[in-house]
Design brief:
heterodimer, A: about 270 residues, alpha/beta, Rossmann fold, six-stranded mixed β-sheet, four-stranded antiparallel β-sheet, 7 helices, about 25% strand, B: about 260 residues, mainly alpha, MetI-like fold, 2 domains
Chain lengths: ~270, ~260
């Protein structure tokens, strides 16, 4: 990690209170520090609270116990310094590709010609030139997620929060999108927090992988996963395979615990 | 019909399109022929069912002497005004109820109680309040048509996706901005569906109210011609109302389809 931490997550607990049913402790004293322009994956079994932690960083949920600071300032609600990309794209279905990308720029109060130019640049960056006037319903899953990524990158947040962004895509598209994301990240470096339950994806993309425990979620271990990512044979490299294996075992233990806990529930 | 619809609409020539339309409404033509025959052969009394040809002749008479335009104009004005108010107030009410909990707590029971009430029961009430003229009809249509719009808007707005709201918030949009940019468009499909129900209701309420107490309007005309035994004219007005209701619905469908083109 270089320089002071940009994101500090300090003893954050969160109780999830569903409208019906009993309250659940989703996060239990989670702690993590993320450096400037670092790519960190949050990895864990389903229901471990990794998305909850992401939403807390985004300011969409209130931090009730502990603290989350960004550049030293506590998070107090959503803001354009943190862009988010969701698993199910969350594009405005009534806006075209261009309209979706322009939306964030309009909110930033950018001048019209500047907005148009920037939208064009980012449509090009994610390879959607020619689809500017299509509505999300006319696009494939991969194209929708490219649009969502372009929309978020276009308003230039310092931090990119990604909530299983490739989880809804088929395997081939997912592979393409992963290398695409790395390419884009190298061109516009940002701090990225990437939630996933796919070990290989986490190891491939991230500088560090934070493995979370089964519910209530804590950061169990942090594994360094810096590789030379542009090697096309990376998935066959011994060092890569070993890392995946190591992390896979850590996650597996937690997945088993999560299953056990579920079985014990009345 | 089934053979013809196998070709996508875009590839049909104009002639084919006309053919499809003709076949679609062929049953109506058959019904018209059957009507004429039944009346001509005196299978039913001509008082109960005058021949279609004399109904049509009577319709032209009503059109040329201005009766139809005069009464129709009054009716359409009432329907448009009542429906317009219902759409504006109903839409705003539904969205505000979905967005702001205190409003929902306050108004939900009132909406629930009034929704199933047959609005025609309010005809005498509105007359007592606003008299025999346009006011009472507009109020009745407004009251009767508002709740379907409200409920459509409410359900649509409540169904706004959390991730969409969050996406907008993360670009720096404030709460009111999100209401306008995300909640209102999310509510639109169901809101527009509610308006369609309201459109049909407005015709029902209009004619019922005018039949009972009015000096003018389609309903009044149906009542008067019927009472005077001028059945040709009565049928002519009934058919006019039926056609207008149908046409309004078709036009509305085309408009909503265009407005919701993004849904595919």
């Amino acid at each position: 990690m270089t320089g002071p931490s940009q994101i500090v997550i300090d003893g954050v607990s969160h109780i999830y209170r569903p409208p019906r049913g009993r309250a659940v402790l989703a996060l239990d004293h989670a702690a993590l520090e993320v450096g400037n322009r670092e790519f960190v994956a949050l990895l864990g079994p389903s229901g471990c609270g990794k998305s909850t932690l992401l939403y807390l960083i985004g300011g969409f949920l209130p931090v009730e116990t502990g603290a989350i600071r960004i550049d030293g300032k506590p998070v107090a609600g959503p803001g354009p310094d943190r862009g988010i990309v969701f698993q199910h794209f969350a594009l405005f279905p009534w806006k075209t590709v261009r309209g979706n990308i322009l939306y964030g720029l309009e909110r930033q109060g950018m001048a019209k010609t500047e907005r148009e130019r920037r939208a064009k640049d980012f449509i090009e960056l994610v390879g959607l030139t020619g689809f500017e006037d299509s509505y999300p319903s006319q696009l494939s899953g991969g194209m929708r997620q490219r649009t969502a990524i372009a929309r978020t990158l276009a308003f230039d947040p310092k931090i990119l929060l990604m909530d299983e962004p490739f989880g809804a895509l088929d395997a081939q598209t997912r592979g393409l999108m992963q290398s695409e994301l790395l390419r884009i990240w190298r061109r516009t470096p940002k701090t990225v927090i990437f939630v996933t339950h796919d070990v290989q994806e986490a190891v491939y993309l991230a500088d560090r992988v934070a493995v979370m425990s089964a519910r209530p979620g804590r950061i169990k271990t942090i594994v360094d996963t810096k590789f030379k990512k542009d090697d096309s044979n990376i998935f066959k490299q011994a060092a890569f395979v070993e890392k995946v294996d190591e992390i896979w075992h850590l996650v597996r233990e937690e997945a088993i615990k999560a299953q056990g806990a579920r079985r014990d529930e009345p | 019909m089934s053979v013809l619809s196998a070709t996508p609409a875009a590839q049909r020539t104009r002639g084919e399109q006309a053919m499809v339309l003709f076949l679609r409404y062929l049953p109506l033509v058959l019904l018209a022929i059957a009507w004429e025959l039944v009346a001509l052969l005196h299978l039913v009394s001509s008082d109960a069912l005058p021949p279609l040809s004399s109904v049509i002749a009577s319709w032209f008479g009503l059109l040329t002497d201005g009766t139809l335009l005069d009464n129709g104009g009054a009716s359409l004005y009432r329907a448009a005004a009542g429906l317009g108010l219902a759409i504006v107030f109903g839409g705003v009410l539904g969205i505000v109820m979905a967005w702001w909990k205190p409003v929902n707590v306050l108004l939900a029971p009132i909406v629930e109680i009034f929704y199933p009430l047959p609005k025609s029961a309010l005809i005498p009430v509105t007359v007592i309040w606003l008299g025999f003229g346009d006011g009472s009809k507009i109020l009745l249509i407004f009251l009767g048509c508002m709740l379907p719009v409200t409920i459509g808007a409410y359900n649509g707005a409540r169904g706004s996706e959390q991730a969409l709201i969050w996406s907008a918030r993360s670009t720096g949009a404030g709460r009111l901005r999100v209401l306008w940019d995300v909640v209102v468009p999310s509510a639109m499909p169901e809101l527009l569906n509610g308006v369609r129900t309201a459109l049909a209701l407005s015709f029902i309420l209009l004619v019922s109210a005018e039949l009972i107490v009015a000096h003018k309007g389609f309903g009044y005309l149906i009542g008067v011609t019927g009472a005077n035994g001028n059945y040709d004219a009565m049928y002519a007005v009934v058919l006019t109302v039926a056609f207008l209701g149908f046409a309004a619905d078709r036009v509305y469908l085309v408009i909503t389809k265009r407005a919701l083109a993004w849904r595919e």
